[in-house]
Specification:
This protein is 49% helix and 17% strand. It has 7 helices and 8 strands; from the N terminus they run E-H-E-H-E-H-H-E-H-E-H-E-E-H-E.
């Protein structure tokens, strides 16, 4: 069976690589330029469902499942490609500069901790101990210790190599 995937970004190459591995399908990726040259390489690399979601619900649930799958995905991709993706389970900080932002962060932390997620509000002193160069106007920060990050350019390089090694075809 032949499969055509339109778009050679993170999603397209991830799907192409998995289809070749799991189903042995004949996969071709159509890309208008170089794989990953568009939005995928320009992304911030945040794997941060807690930072990015404003309320509980199905989207957060899916994002949390995705975050849990990342360590294995990154490890397998690095093994297949030989390219380090610089996956880092570093946590994340969301900084507040106004009283309203501090209250919004506290509300976010409250519903997240009530849902069993780890999050805490850092005082200015606690924030500066973690990030000494933080803007002096920062009033507080939400600490999401379980959020992660990855280098999108290295990830794209690893995906392109992995897809090629698995026999995915590319057409521009």
């Amino acid at each position: 069976m032949k499969v055509i995937i339109v778009g050679g970004g993170i999603m397209g190459l991830s799907i192409a690589t998995e289809l070749r591995r799991d189903a042995g399908l004949d996969v071709t990726v159509l890309e208008k330029s170089i794989p990953g040259a568009e939005a995928s390489s320009a992304a911030a690399g945040m794997l941060a469902p807690q930072f990015e979601n404003e309320k509980p619900g199905p989207m957060l649930d899916l994002c949390l499942l995705s975050r849990m799958a990342w360590p294995k995905f990154a490890r397998e991709l690095e093994e297949l490609s030989g390219v380090p993706v610089h996956y880092l389970p570093s946590g994340g900080l969301q900084v507040a500069f106004t009283d309203d932002e501090v209250h919004a962060l506290q509300a976010k932390i409250d519903w997240q901790t009530a849902s069993g997620l780890r999050a805490q509000l850092l005082s200015p002193a606690e924030l500066r101990s973690l990030e000494p160069s933080i803007n002096d106007k920062a009033l507080a920060a939400a600490d999401f210790p379980d959020d992660h990050q990855v280098d999108p350019r290295r990830l794209m390089r690893a995906l392109a190599v992995a897809a090629s090694r698995r026999g995915v075809s590319f057409r521009t």
